[in-house]
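Hi Y.,

Following your request, here is the sequence exactly as I used it, all 482 residues.
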Amino acid sequence: MQSRTGIRTATTFVAIAGLTLFTAGCATEGGGEEAVEQVTITISGPNQFNSDPTSFGPAWEDLVAAFEKEEPGITVESTVLPLSEFKNTLSTQLAAGTAPELIFAQASHTPEQVVTLDPYLAEPNPYVEGNEKWQDVFNADYYGPNSSVSRNAAGNYEFIPFNLYIFGLYYNADVFEDAGAEIPETYGELLRACDDLRDAGYTPLAFDNSWLAQNSVFKPIMASLLTKYYDEWNQFGGDGKPGEATQVSQKSFAKLMLTGEITPQSVPEVAEALDLAREVVQRCATDNWSGVASTGATFTGAQEFLSGKAGLSFGANFSANGLAEVDWEYGTLPFPTITKKDSSLATGEASRLGASVGGTSYMIPSYIEGAKLDAAIKFLQFVSSAEHVQPWLNESGGIPAIVDGKPAPGLEGFLEGEWAVPPPVPDPQFIPKAINGQAVYTGYFSGGKSIDDQLNEMSGYWIEKSKELAADGAWTDDWAKQ
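Below is the corresponding structure, written out as tokens. Let me know if you'd prefer a different format.
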């Protein structure tokens, strides 16, 4: 467990904005007579860093300014989209051919809708001195041959990670002290701490009705319980070919589901994980949380936590920026370990999540061509250069995806211990594109849906998503055609 106080740069966010597309034109550099072809590209995604509805923050603006100085013929505009709407907005624009040059990678899409980056990654990154292959600048455990999540269903690279993402629990040390509650290391200790906090008049866990909140509880529990199936389920490498991956891949999961080898009902740990997660929500979460709208992705139940009324909240590595103005001490900890005392199905191993490329990652629509495509590639190369991206990482609470980068000051606690190690069997988040990002466990966590109904619904999700992956990846295996 790590405790710290620290990063002081920005606040939490809610962002709204429209989308503006720009076209290439001519400009004269430095007042000279020679005309320079000016290309403007737009980067569009959710604001993960602050509450400004029009900007990703001063650190981002500095990064863009540095790029524009390096490449005076390119202008970069930013479009900030609401967290609750960006996936649908970008997916709709992508399908209509109106999305801008760089879009947030979590937008639902098919492989042919975005540029395959493999040929570019095989060439040198011009912003990294001595580099012969752009791919080599990245940490291969997170983005490369050692990772099962850096490629799409077709086995290709389609996005570039600007940073890595890891979440955990933030706690208000003052609230814990006032309530006489112990900082939890196990699941059972978490529930007891929640009781102590509630008895003292605090909300134990600031929560809202977002998918982020539900997933933050369920994901680590599910991954913890499924660890024992690694050898049995590990059938495909990260490249989609028969073999093994460091984590059970989506293709391995899809085969298991489409062949009927596993279902949510046949794996007892699935129901157990749902039950354990519901217990946390019902015993710890904000009263009437299902009616609490999310105010952004920095913290779950952000307003309640930042006001000092709650003991705990889920947040990511860059969420610490949102604590710039609070007058209380805070710390961080992983989701507590599920012990055998907590569940007969537990392995007793420490909880794992692992940093991943699910932080700030961007891709290029496949219809972007010519000078705009070249400019977009250059920007992606620029932000994967340690020299240029490190200042932004430092100010935004970033963990680098590149080998030569360093975590932002104060983030070391997220990277120590078992929590930072990727689980061998990740939670199979097989959610179909149509409901991607929706809070699909609300009924069960709030007590309005039975476990049988939840498992049946989940079974449908798993099969539908598996078929989507098979189609997107053009898998030719017999089992993929079922």
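The chain has two domains: 25-165+359-410, 167-353+418-481.

Thanks again,
Q.
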